[in-house]
Amino acid sequence: MFMKLLMALSGALFVFYVVVHMYGNLKIFAGVEAFDDYALHLRTLLTPILPYGGFLWLFRALLIAALVAHAWSAFYLWSRARGARTTRYVAKEAAKATVKSRMMRWGGVALLLFLVWHLLQFTIVKFNVGSVAAGDSAGRLVISSFQVWWVVVIYLLALAALGMHLWHGVWSASQTLGWTSSARSRRTAKTVASVIALVTAVGFALPPLAILFGIVKG
User: At what angle do helices 54-83 and 32-43 cross, to 10 degrees?
Assistant: First the structure.
């Protein structure tokens, strides 16, 4: 039960993060200057109590800890489920892993790989695949990157994995936390999971698509 609870709580932090991050990305519709102001504001949160960028690094450390906890608990639960199968299943359907479990497992791996790519592109290295000069503003880097079609494709594939992961994760966390004890609460949990997954995935997809099709320009 502890591992399920750890997985649910660490996942809840990521749900909060991706929703806030999705909202921040929508600032690009207000223009490059508005997006750059948003990026600067993130780095000046709680200054001068914290140094410049201090809040971001503390939050990143928290996210890394949550990621380790989430991956560890997921692997532990998966290993325990496999270890519990001391004999071969008789029924053909029971012998296969459920579609949802496979989607969550491989979707999580895909999201982890995308996270590495995303951090390298926009945070750590800030490499440019478009036409802007190295060291240009955050807003111009975003626009330049999503003017490249294959970058948008990678992003959309990751969003499909994110949407499925969010839906199943929010629903599973609701079960773990005891919020699905009745038929009504189960319907509510599934609705909330669907709304969070859909709004987040669509909200993330809007900026790159708008940039690719020339609706948002630098």
Answer: 80
Q: What is the largest CA-CA distance in the chain?
A: 65
Tell me if 60 sits within 8 A of 11, measured CB to CB. Answer: no
Helix (H, G, I), strand (E, B) or coil at 44: coil
Rg of the Cα trace of the chain?
20
Q: Which residue has the tokens 């200054």?
A: 47
The number of residues making up the chain comes to 218
pTM exceeds 0.90 for this model: no
| pLDDT tens profile 55-98 | 999 998 999 999 899 888 888 877 776 666 555 554 444 445 56
* Residue 20 CB-density burial (10 A; 0-12 exposed, 13-18 middle, 19+ buried): exposed
Contact 11, 74 (CB under 8 A): no
Side-chain-side CA neighbours of residue 47 (13 Å):
12
Q: Nearest CA to 167 among 44, 15, 50, 13?
A: 15
DSSP 76-106: HHHHHHHHT--S--SSTTTTSPPHHHHHHHH
Distance CA 144, CA 46 (A): 31
How is residue 63 written in tokens?
A: 């996210």
